[in-house]
Predict the 3D structure of the following.
Amino acid sequence: MLFIVKIYRFRTVSSTQDIARELAEDGVKEGIVIADMQTKGRGRADRIWHSPSGGLWLSIILRPKVEPVYCLRLVLILGLAVVRAIRAVTGLNALIKWPNDVVIDGKKVCGILIESETVEDLVKYVIIGVGINVNVKLEELPLNVRAEATSLSEKLGGNVSNEEVLRALLTEFKALYKLFLRGETGWINEYREKSCILGRDVNVTNDAGLTICGTAVDVDDYGRLVVKLSDKTVRRLDYGEVARLRIHI
Ligand code: BTN
């Protein structure tokens, strides 16, 4: 079904993911939850997502009739939509760091989180959270986060309209989501072009703290990262297998 019938706006919430999940469980078909601030924003691998005012914090509820294996494509589509939107609104050279980060000059400006419910091997609903540091003041972020983060206003030296970024994002996402629902994968070529890791040496660490080193050689049609290890074996990494990815400098 297409698409996003309703936008639910809040001043402050714990996490837009939680509100979106409640709505989905209450039967809302598709929609977007947006908040000015989150008190318990969360990221991947149980990390805290700092969400002061000025950012664009939103969760999209979707009900694609697909098997869970296709959810990774949705994360990639959202990343590509964010990159297109940032480029269109600001002209900044946003790039994608697989699977879920958007970076500018190597610093993270956006993170994407997918959570889903499945019934009998089919997706019941997915909630895709997107956090974009639009007008976030970096001094409001903890020191360890600040070192690796940026915001659009920081890069441009002035504020950017959150509404404009949101509009551009939804326009791009709608177009890509249509392709996703048709099972098309041609957009992955653009994803590859806008990736900042393909061809680079990377360290990939999983939840258990195990790290592998290799060269990121491709993103396959399922959205998995293809990594060639030094012994020439090839690994295809799924979203859940990667807690942290670092690029060798
Ligand atoms: C990550 O990079 O680890 C993903 C960050 C996702 C943050 C967004 S902000 C809106 C939505 N609500 C949350 O609590 N998290 C996501």
Summary: Residues 81 and 106 are 18 Å apart (CA to CA). Residues 15-17, 38, 41-44, 47, 49, 51, 57-59, 100-101, 111-113, 129-131 surround biotin (CB under 6 Å). The longest helix spans residues 71-90.
